[in-house]
C-alpha cells in the first residue's frame, strides 16, 4: 500500500508530521503540496499519483490534507 498525501495549504506542513515515517518507508509515502484549490482539486491531484493497475483507493481528509490510500 502507498499513502499519497495532498497538502492543500495546511498551516502545519505534512512534511513535518510525516518525516519520520518517510525515512522508514521510502517510496510508500508521497507528499504533494499545492495551493488551496478545494477538496476536488486535492482529490484529483492525489488520484493523478496512484499507480496504474491499483484495485482499491480510499480517501481520508484531515485538517485540510487529503490522504489517498492506494
Strand content: 25-35%
* Fraction in helix: 25-40%
The beta-strand count equals 4
What is the alpha-carbon Rg in Å?
Answer: 11 Å
Sheet with the most strands, sense and barrel status: 4 strands, mixed
The string of secondary-structure elements, in order, is EHEHEE
Low-confidence stretches: none
How many angstroms separate the termini? 6 Å
Q: What is the SS-derived class?
A: alpha+beta
Walkthrough of the structure:
The protein is α+β, with helices and mostly antiparallel strands and 70 residues long. The protein contains two helices and four strands; from the N terminus they run βαβαββ. Strands 2-1-4-3 form a four-stranded mixed beta sheet, sandwiched between helices. Strand 1 (3-8), helix 1 (14-24) and strand 2 form a beta-alpha-beta unit. The longest helix is centred in the N-terminal third of the chain and has 11 residues, at 14-24. The protein is globular.
Topology:
Layout: E1 3-8, H1 14-24, E2 29-34, H2 39-47, E3 58-62, E4 65-69
Parallel strand pairs: 1-2
Antiparallel strand pairs: 1-4, 3-4
